[in-house]
Every structure is written in structure tokens, then in C-alpha cells.
Design a protein that fits this description.
single chain; globular; alpha+beta; 17 helices; 7-stranded mixed beta sheet; 715 residues; disordered N terminus
Length: 715
């Protein structure tokens, strides 16, 4: 092997160092190019036409006025759009027939020389419908509810252990409560966008996606192409939170339009249309029942949820699954029921299942603590299981108790007066709350290549996607650690389906999955180089590896991240406004691979949980069948002023049963416990338990006059 060309360079930095993001300068200076910022020569622009009825059939489409406008090339409808092969995902069967399954379903697409002309053409299209009766309102006793066979992620829809009903009836202390959560929307900063072009039968797409391998595979199937005839590039992605985890309508429509007009086409979805076509977190109604002994040990636990899905495809939020994991519960029932309504198709939203499910479970545990007059931290510690309750498998690692205790110390939880509504500053009531958090460790098979050049540099190729998490940087650190070289010698190529295929960025699985493949390839490269005699060839040495065999093996361990979230809030007795004062998270998530990007992920998740607790909500209009909050003026998310003090900490957790890096996913664990911690703090501040998120002033204020035991407000 050639001598080291960097003999005086810095030594390798340990995995876990807080390295700055490699693409940070590009993003700060605007040179990072996103899907809608690629404009091939002759590029046309598209604008979609959404259905204005909640359910029915298209009876006529008049495109004459639209086609008469200057610069308009085409209007695609179900009558003239390219035919697609039947898709695996029915939401991608676009412009294929006259059915309208929900409000906002795309019924036409205008294509023109400019964005303005395309929008004007779309507005000029006239569509006539035959409307049917519709139903978009979920209730706990809806007539269409049925028990799901499976929930998202392949979880069984129902799990039962022991004799729940008998033990719950016999429990000396019992909680039986219902919580509701509204529909929620992902709303990434970058709208869903695609730029598509065909050349000599090859389709190339720049797409805002969390996984371009999946997009390539689906486009190839839809257009009856070989995978080698499609290239999908997702170099930079401005957030997704699950909504870009699978192909969405814009990429299919852009490719259809480009084929139809014979030139490149760019389509960026208007934000007001996104709630209807890119997925949402479905509303959920949770009934949680807990039976316990007087010492606080849980003897019976049930979590039963109702949710909606669309008539297009079934998606069931797995919100009862966390109750199968968290606490000692020898007698248990967890059930998922779903109603297929005339609504847009729900899909993944950050921490699907765990986020709404843990809000309900952790709120109910807090109610049990109040009923028993036991400190909420202590109650959770008393119900720590030895093995995973649902499967009886040992945990690969579980340090929830340490998270609770160390988090409580850092937060200053004790001494805490458990009495509600006793801390007061003028018109403000103050309170603190705590909640636990969990998220599964998910791993997918991936491929990677590691290449050594004769000049002492290395290149790693893997089709990972950086959705703002710092994937390029962390994968370079993983590679450098395996190669035993400084990180600056390693180049990372990601974000293109022509690279070795990899799992998508979702389920907190990205870094663990990609990193395992990168580690394996780099380790094999080190061995190859050690066996090599003499200088490297001019073309260098390349080693390929994949982890399909390892990741396909079922682990004998239950693998999860855990955490504890602590919140302090203030409630204004005059306005009913709830504001956060402090938020602290303590996590056990395996080995942290980059402390800077990890803290960013934890804090980002906690901020999203805060939004879920206090402001984020959407609603379906029962008359028109559409979402009423369709932009960031109506759909409120936290701003900097809403998060005055937020801290994220973690344990140095050793877990040898995960992957070569010993890492767990961290992208979603931060959101999971936050909403319950905030809601529990509001209860402590006011003495009033509100069970319908978000806790907006219109819900809080009417409850405050009930606080007659308080001293009079200051003049």
C-alpha cells in the first residue's frame, strides 16, 4: 500500500465527536439545490387540479378555456393521461379513472411554459361531478368501525394476555379514561416537489423524498420500466417527517406530464393542497384502563384505540402498541379499531403510533399517580418490567429508570408539592409534569461500497438520504472510525438511486441501517488493504457489502430506545393561554454517533411534541369534507418564542445487540413523551385534567372558573 500522504494530519477523531454538518455551508449560502431548484433546458411547469367534492364521479371535464391560454401545452385528465400499471400504493393511481374518493383528490394537471401560466390554466379547468353522500367524522362508536387485523408496521391489531376484565374489575384502584387527538399534518419546510425528464427512454427525476431507491422502484413499476431505466435523485431534502417516506403524487404526475409533452416538467405542490394528498396523522380516540394495587403496582392494563383510514387504502395508526412494552401488566388488552371514511389517506407522521399512543398512556399513568398520591416518577419505577411484557423477550438494554432519576435530578423535580394549583405568580398558575418515552429500534438491509484511492483518500457510496439530520456527516464518522483514518479523508456519496440501494430515512432507522452497511464495507476494505502488497492500482480498490442477511435475522432481544421528559408550564388564568417555561429530555438511545447532530434531533422532536400538546390541530369540515387548516397561517407550529428553555441529555448506554456501532435511532424518541409531559404539567398547574389535545385557550379558559379554592386574582 502507498505511504500515508497525510503523515502530519490530525489523528482520527472518536466516533461521537460533535462534528459540524458537511453540507452546512452549502445550505447556509444557498448553493445546496433542492428538487424544485433543478431546471433543465426547456423545462415546463405543472399545476394540479384538486377535486372540489368529497365523494363522487367526474361526469365531464372542460379544458378548452385552459388550453386557449398563452403558453399552455396540455391539460392531463383521466381521459388522456398516460396509462399506469396498477400501483402497489393505490394513492398513486392518478388520473386513471373518474372516481373521486375524497376532497382534494387530483382530477387534472395543467402544463405550461411558466408557473404562472400553469396555475392560471389549472384555475380555468371546469370539472363537473356526480356527488355521493360522504362521511368524514370519526367518533368512538362509529358504525363503520371494525377491528384491524394488523396495524402500521405489521403489528397485530389485537393482543391479549391473562384475564384483563376480571383483574380490572377486582383492582382496588382503577382508572378508566378517554383521550382524543385531532388530525395532524407534517408540513415540512420544503413542499413536495419533483422535476422529471425523459431522454432516450430513460426517466430521471429530482424528487423531494426520504428514499430515492423506493421512488425509483415504484416509478419503474408504474411506467413498466426496468429499474436501470430510472434514476431518482434526492440530494437535499428540506424535511419530511414521514410524509416523504414513500412516493407521493407529485413525482408520478411530473413523470406523466414530461412523457406526455415531451419535455422536462417541474411540479411543486402548493402547500394548501398538501394536507389532502401527502398523508396525515389520523385522529385517534383512546380508551385507557389501568387497574392497580394500593402500592401502585399495575395488575391490569388496556389500551383500545379508534382511528380512521381512507376508502383508497388501509392505514392503521399503531397507537396501542407502546402499552405492550412499557409497564408491568400481567393482564393486558390492546386493540386497534378503524373506520374507512371518505377522507384523504393517512400515512406516517413522525413517530407514528408512539406519539399519540404514549400521550394517552402516559397521561393515564399520571392520573393513576394522582389517584394513589404517589410521585409520578416513583410510580413508573415501581412498574418497571424485567422483560418486554408482550413477548417476554429480554431487553437488549433498558435504562428507563436511570433516565427518570437522572432527568429528575437535572430538572430539579424534587422537592415538588404534588398539590395542584398551589404555585402562583400573579395571574399565572405554574406546574410541572413528567412522562416516559419509548421508540423501537428498527433496522433495514442496505448496500454500501467503500473505495480506497492511491492518494490515501476514501469514497463511500450508499443511497442514504439526508433529510436535515446530518446523515452525510455521521456516515463519514462511521466510515472513518472503521477505516482508522481522519474523517476529512472520507468522501460520502448519497442521495441517488444509481448508488448501492439502501433503506429509506424513516422510523429512526436510517443511520443504524446505513451505518451498518458502511461499517461492514469499510471493515472489509481494511482487510483487503492489509492483504495488498505494493502500491494501490491507479483505479484504487473497491469493496461492496450488504446487510440483508444480518438484518433479516429475528433478534432474540426486544430493542427499544427509552427516555423521560420533564416540563414546566404556566397557565394564564385571564386568557387561558398555556406557555412552556422549561423542557428537559433524558434519553437512553445506545451509542451517540455525533453529539451535535444528536442534540439537534432530540430538541427538534421535543419541539414537535410541544406543538402537538399546545397548538397543532386540523379538522375535517363535515359539510365539504376537506381539511380547514391548509397552510401555516391556520395550522400553528411552535416558533422560537414558544420554546424559551429546552435541554436534551443522554446516558452513555452500551448495547452489544444492535449493530456494529451500538447505536439506536434518535429521530423520533424526542417527540414521544413530550405531549404527555406538557399536559401533565397543565393538570398540576390547574388541577383540571384536559383530555383533548391541543390545549388551546378555548379549551383551557372555561375550566379555570372552577378553581374557586384559589385566592383571588391580583387586581
Amino acid at each position: 500500500m502507498s505511504p500515508d500522504p497525510f503523515p502530519l494530519g490530525p489523528p482520527p477523531r472518536p466516533l461521537g465527536d460533535p462534528l459540524a454538518r458537511r453540507e452546512g455551508r452549502e445550505k447556509a449560502t444557498g448553493s445546496a439545490r433542492y428538487a424544485a431548484e433543478h431546471t433543465p433546458p426547456g423545462c415546463a411547469y405543472a399545476w394540479p387540479v384538486p377535486a372540489t367534492v368529497a365523494k363522487g364521479r367526474i361526469t365531464a371535464v372542460d379544458t378548452a378555456a385552459a388550453l386557449a391560454l398563452p403558453g399552455v401545452h396540455a391539460v392531463l385528465t383521466h381521459e388522456n393521461a398516460p396509462r399506469l400499471a396498477p400501483p402497489e400504493d393505490p394513492t398513486l393511481a392518478l388520473l386513471q379513472d373518474d372516481r373521486v374518493p375524497h376532497h382534494g383528490w387530483y382530477v387534472a394537471l395543467a402544463v405550461a411554459d411558466s408557473l404562472e401560466a400553469a396555475r392560471a390554466a389549472a384555475e380555468a379547468v371546469r370539472v363537473s361531478y356526480a356527488s355521493d353522500g360522504h362521511d368524514v367524522v370519526l367518533t368512538a362508536d362509529h358504525a363503520r368501525l371494525y377491528t384491524a387485523e394488523t396495524a402500521n408496521g405489521g403489528h397485530p391489531g389485537v393482543r391479549e394476555r391473562g384475564d384483563f376484565e376480571g383483574e380490572f374489575a377486582a383492582a382496588p384502584v382503577a382508572v378508566d379514561v378517554t383521550y382524543t387527538l385531532p388530525p395532524l399534518h407534517n408540513h415540512p419546510m420544503e413542499p413536495h416537489a419533483s422535476t422529471a425528464r425523459w431522454a432516450d427512454g430513460h426517466l430521471t427525476v429530482h424528487d423531494s423524498s426520504q428514499g430515492s431507491t423506493k421512488v425509483r422502484d415504484d416509478l419503474a413499476a408504474l411506467f413498466s420500466l426496468g429499474k436501470g431505466e430510472v434514476t431518482v435523485i434526492s440530494e437535499h431534502v428540506g424535511g419530511g417527517f414521514g410524509s416523504k417516506g414513500t412516493p407521493r403524487p407529485q413525482v408520478v404526475l411530473a413523470a406523466m406530464a414530461a412523457r406526455h409533452v415531451g419535455r422536462p416538467v417541474k411540479l411543486s405542490l402548493p402547500r394548501s393542497q398538501m394536507p389532502a394528498v401527502v398523508g396525515h396523522r389520523a385522529p385517534t380516540v383512546h380508551r385507557v384502563r389501568i387497574g392497580a394495587s394500593h402500592d401502585g403496582v399495575i395488575t391490569a392494563l388496556a389500551h383500545e384505540i379508534a382511528t380512521h383510514t381512507s376508502t383508497v387504502k388501509e392505514f392503521v395508526e399503531q397507537a396501542a402498541v407502546p402499552a405492550r412494552i412499557m409497564y408491568t401488566s400481567p393482564h393486558s388488552r390492546t386493540v386497534h379499531r378503524v373506520a374507512a371514511l371518505d377522507v384523504p389517506s393517512p400515512s406516517w407522521m413522525r413517530a407514528p403510533g408512539e406519539a399519540p399512543g404514549m400521550y394517552a398512556l402516559e397521561s393515564a399513568v399520571d392520573e393513576l399517580a394522582v389517584l394513589l398520591d404517589i410521585d409520578p416518577v416513583d410510580l413508573r419505577v415501581r412498574n418497571e418490567p424485567d422483560t418486554e411484557p408482550d413477548s417476554d423477550r429480554p431487553f437488549s438494554s433498558r435504562h428507563l429508570v436511570e433516565c427518570l432519576r437522572q432527568g429528575a435530578d437535572r430538572f430539579g423535580w424534587l422537592p415538588r408539592d404534588p398539590r395542584p394549583a398551589v404555585r402562583r405568580e400573579g395571574d399565572l398558575l405554574l406546574g410541572t409534569g413528567v412522562a416516559a418515552a419509548t421508540y423501537p429500534v428498527l433496522i433495514g438491509g442496505s448496500d454500501a461500497e467503500a473505495h480506497a484511492d492511491a492518494d490515501g483518500t476514501y469514497r463511500v457510496r450508499v443511497n442514504a438520504t439526508d433529510i436535515g439530520t446530518g446523515a452525510r456527516t455521521v456516515l463519514a464518522q462511521v466510515a472513518a472510525a472503521a477505516l482508522g483514518v481522519p474523517e476529512r479523508r472520507v468522501r460520502i456519496d448519497i442521495g441517488c438511486s444509481d448508488l448501492p440501494p439502501a433503506t429509506l430515512a424513516g422510523g429512526s432507522a436510517g443511520t443504524g441501517s446505513w451505518g451498518w452497511a458502511v461499517h461492514k464495507a469499510c471493515t472489509a476494505l481494511v482487510k483487503r488493504l492489509a492483504d495488498h502488497q505494493g502500491p494501490l492500482p491507479a483505479g484504487g480498490v473497491t469493496v461492496a457489502a450488504d446487510t440483508r442477511e444480518e438484518t433479516a435475522e429475528e433478534s432474540p432481544y426486544a430493542r427499544h430506545s427509552f427516555g423521560a421528559t420533564f416540563a414546566e408550564v404556566q397557565v394564564d388564568t385571564v386568557t387561558g393561554e398555556v406557555r412552556l417555561r422549561r423542557l428537559l429530555g433524558m434519553y437512553a438511545a445506545g451509542r451517540i454517533l455525533n453529539s451535535r447532530t444528536a442534540r439537534s434531533q432530540f430538541i427538534g422532536g421535543m419541539t414537535m411534541g410541544l406543538g402537538m400538546a399546545l397548538m397543532e390541530a386540523s379538522s375535517l369540515d363535515p359539510v365539504f369534507g376537506d381539511f380547514t387548516e391548509r397552510d401555516l397561517a391556520a395550522y400553528h407550529v411552535p416558533a422560537c418564542a414558544d420554546v424559551p428553555a429546552i435541554e436534551a441529555h443522554w446516558l452513555d448506554e452500551e448495547d452489544p445487540h444492535l449493530n456494529p456501532m451500538g447505536s439506536k435511532g434518535i429521530g423520533e424518541i424526542g417527540i414521544v413523551g413530550t405531549a404527555a409531559a406538557v399536559a401533565n404539567a397543565v393538570r398540576h398547574a390547574t388541577g383540571v385534567r384536559l383530555r383533548d389535545l391541543p390545549l388551546t385557550p378555548d379549551k383551557v379558559l372555561p375550566q379555570l372558573p372552577a378553581l374557586s379554592h384559589l385566592p383571588p386574582l391580583a387586581p
